[in-house]
Specification:
Blueprint lengths: L14 H17 L11 E8 L1 H14 L8 E2 L4 E6 L5 H7 L6 H14 L3 E11 L3 E7 L11 E6 L7 H13 L1 H11 L6 H11 L4 H6 L1 H8 L4 H12 L7 E19 L3
Antiparallel strand pairs: 1-3, 1-7, 2-6, 4-5, 4-7, 5-6
Helix pairs in contact: 3-4, 5-6, 9-10
């Protein structure tokens, strides 16, 4: 959700089976008195479903790093790249979740582009693998303007109870760690503090804080500096910042980018 990656479908080579499975599931739902998804139901999500060979390559890559992330054990069995999560939201709401898109008109354009690309085969490249104690994700390139997320990705595995959308927060933290001036705003947007970007950057520059982890370590001082009005709001900011860098952040840029292949698919609500 929220544009996060997660377990996906089977990919183009399995399309016939996937369609049969959908029909069978619809029939089963009807027999149980449940309402099967309607062909006119609202589009819920656009994704790039990786083919089986690409899924196997992702599994192999994760296996080579899994000893470094013992708490991230909920391995995703299938993989996809979320291109646009609609979730029933209006274009304005979706634009609010993705300020990098540039407004509701851009959301409408992206919807049209994805609809025109449905079923199309695309290739993406894995640039790096990133993880913390909650989640592991692969950061991608090569998607151009077809992905609403600032950091296109595949969620590989999570700690139990952690939703795949946390990959967006993970990769925003990774960017801000590499370049705070560039990445602070997007990271704060992921943790619900976007309106404090300018004030917090000024505090970081004055205090010499250079990473999200250093901000989290000094959450009390940071919150007091950027919110000097409401005590309640200051307490909320302090709590969010203190919990925003949970455990050690790790990552590795691949020496050779890993190429993955998938097909653009739209899924309607209930599918």
């Amino acid at each position: 959700g929220g544009g996060g990656g997660g377990g996906g479908g089977k990919g183009g080579g399995k399309n016939g089976n996937a369609q049969n499975g959908t029909a069978q599931n619809g029939g089963a739902a009807a027999r149980k008195g449940q309402k099967a998804p309607h062909k006119d139901a609202a589009m819920w999500i656009w994704m790039l479903e990786l083919d089986e060979a690409s899924c196997e390559a992702v599994r192999a890559l994760w296996q080579s790093y899994r000893d470094h992330m013992p708490t991230v054990s909920n391995f995703t069995k299938g993989f996809h790249v979320t291109l646009l999560y609609l979730g029933g939201g209006s274009n304005e709401e979706i634009a609010g979740r993705h300020p990098n898109l540039g407004g509701s008109d851009a959301v409408a354009t992206l919807k049209d582009e994805l609809a025109n690309c449905e079923g199309k085969e695309l290739q993406v490249e894995v640039q790096s693998i990133v993880w913390d104690p909650r989640i592991c994700a692969l950061e991608l390139s090569s998607l151009g303007q077809l992905c609403a997320n600032r950091h296109p990705h595949v969620t590989v595995a999570t700690r139990s109870g952690v939703p795949p959308r946390v990959s967006n927060e993970l990769l925003a933290r990774w960017e801000a760690t590499e370049d705070l001036a560039r990445g602070l705003g997007p990271w704060l947007a992921q943790i619900g503090l976007a309106k404090y970007s300018e004030a917090l950057l000024e505090w970081c520059q004055a205090m010499g804080a250079a990473t999200p982890d250093e901000i989290a370590e000094n959450a009390t001082d940071a919150a007091a500096a950027i919110e000097n009005g409401s005590i309640e709001e200051r307490s909320r900011i302090e709590e969010v910042l203190r919990n925003a860098a949970p455990g050690e952040l790790s990552g590795q840029t691949l020496e050779q980018p890993l190429r993955l292949t998938g097909h653009v698919r739209g899924r309607r609500r209930g599918e």
